[in-house]
Specification:
Elements: H1 2-21, E1 29-30, H2 32-42, H3 44-65, E2 70-84, E3 95-113, H4 115-183, H5 188-223, E4 230-231, H6 247-257, H7 259-280, E5 285-297, E6 308-318, H8 326-392, H9 398-433
Parallel strand pairs: 1-4
Antiparallel strand pairs: 2-3, 3-5, 5-6
Helix pairs in contact: 1-4, 2-4, 3-4, 4-5, 4-7, 4-9, 6-8, 7-8, 8-9
Length: 440
């Protein structure tokens, strides 16, 4: 009897320490929208992806600006030599002059017809569109990450809570088994069975606590701050949002709005423009030019300095005749890149189609699974109560009670986890179809 009292005292002390470490009074909570705002401000990966997209946008603008005018100016100071040697019939003396000379040049060029630069300009505009989509994709990827890690915490938190409840219930069963054994109407088998389940439940509680700590660290990494308050949980009576429309409608919507497909199609367009630009290298270009030149020699053939100026305005036709086969090789490589971009676009469409169908079915099935688990919780609760009552009356053995208790807590954990999984599936489906919201 003394041993039983000592065990009860140890159990009470353990419960007190546990409750001290996990206060039931929540001083503050933080919800999912607030977590998202913190992540949008502080996530390092989002900042890195945004800066990379902005750099790509500037690169695109650089290609567009390549079709614009080019203005050059230069100045030079030089030592010059000029000679004059007339024919013998002219009966004039040869002359030689060495002098210092200053020069100023200003030149302006504007492509009029340059298909290569035109293709590069169009390619740059497509790259700017890709940059905007990449920024949007980085944001969408962050939202998925936040949703997954937020609900991972809630799931781990619920699993840990249920593990503690199950441990407490098994601890109570162990004490009852030991009391009955000491009073002479219990069995050593009941004690060992209960103690084995209790020890496993303690190990599960430690594992669930580790999972919870790791889940919190994962979300803290995104928001760059420690989570010191409780996360707002789903309400027990919350009606889970449903997805309207049919699968065919969502497939049509995603075909036009999916970010990955839009990026792949724009990348195909840039590859085609690059190929066109490479082919245009073999065609002549027409350039409007204006050149102004001033020179200031301090001496000359006639013994005095002068000021000379020249102005040339016109159209210049240019064509590359030979470049050692480099342009031909570049055009062939660009053609291969077009084929690769076409294949990637096709693969992206197929992957999107599969993802939409898979997520659609997962959402439908998870709703059914939640309803089944909810009914399982109610059924297992009643089964546990009836099994416990039958055990108290001697119609059941303790092992039956332990099994019913295990089924009850397992069904609760599966029910709660399936609700969190459903919310993650909704967010993934929203991202795949490319809309702001998919729910009613």
């Amino acid at each position: 009897m003394m041993k039983s009292l000592l065990i009860k005292y140890a159990c009470c002390l353990s419960v007190f320490v546990t409750l001290a470490g996990y206060p039931t009074v929540v001083l503050a909570t933080i919800n999912l929208p607030e977590i998202i705002q913190l992540a949008l401000k502080r996530d390092a990966q989002l900042r890195a992806d945004t800066f990379a997209a902005e750099a790509r946008n500037v690169d695109g603008w650089q290609s567009v600006a390549g079709y614009g005018p080019t203005l050059t100016a230069s100045g030079a100071s030089m030592r010059s030599r000029d000679s004059f040697q007339p024919e013998d019939s002219a009966k004039m003396e040869d002359r030689l002059a060495k002098f210092n000379e200053g020069e100023i040049k200003v030149g302006l060029e504007q492509p009029v017809v340059d298909l290569e630069k035109g293709s590069k300009a169009l390619q740059g505009m497509a790259e700017m569109d890709i940059a905007e989509l990449l920024k949007k994709k980085a944001r969408e990827d962050l939202l998925i990450k936040v949703h997954e890690r937020y609900y991972a915490i809630l799931s781990a938190q619920e699993a840990h809570r249920l593990a503690r409840e199950e441990s407490a219930a098994l601890q109570k069963q162990l004490l009852n088994a030991e009391d009955k054994l000491e009073l002479g109407f219990g069995t050593i088998t009941n004690k060992y069975d209960t103690e084995a389940r209790y020890r496993l439940s303690l190990a599960a509680e430690i594992a669930r606590k580790t999972d919870l700590d790791n889940a919190k660290k994962a979300l803290e990494e995104v928001i760059d701050q420690e989570i010191t308050c409780e996360l707002e949980d789903l309400q027990p009576d919350m009606v889970l949002p449903d997805v309207p429309k049919d699968l065919a409608t969502w497939l049509e919507i995603s075909g036009a709005a999916n970010i990955d497909i839009n990026i792949k199609e724009l990348q195909l367009k840039t590859a085609q423009l690059e190929y066109r630009g490479m082919q245009s290298r073999f065609l002549p270009t027409l350039v409007l030019f204006a050149d102004y030149n001033e020179r200031y020699p301090d001496n000359g053939l006639f013994g005095y300095g002068e000021e000379r100026s020249e102005l040339d305005v016109g159209l210049r036709l240019e064509a590359k005749i030979l470049s050692g086969g480099r342009d031909t090789a570049a055009a062939i490589a660009a053609g291969k890149r077009v084929k690769a971009a076409e294949a990637r676009a096709t693969a992206a469409k197929r992957a999107m189609n599969r993802s939409v169908r898979s997520l659609w079915e997962s959402i439908r099935q998870t709703r059914e699974l939640i309803a089944a688990y909810q009914q399982a919780v109610t059924a297992n609760e009643k089964a546990l109560e009836s099994t416990q009552a039958a055990y108290d009356e001697g119609a059941k053995v303790l092992l039956d009670v332990l099994n019913a208790q295990q089924d009850y807590y397992r069904s609760q954990r599966q029910y709660k986890t399936s609700r969190y999984d459903y919310m993650i599936l909704l967010e993934k489906f929203r991202q795949v179809v490319g809309v702001e919201t998919v729910c009613l």
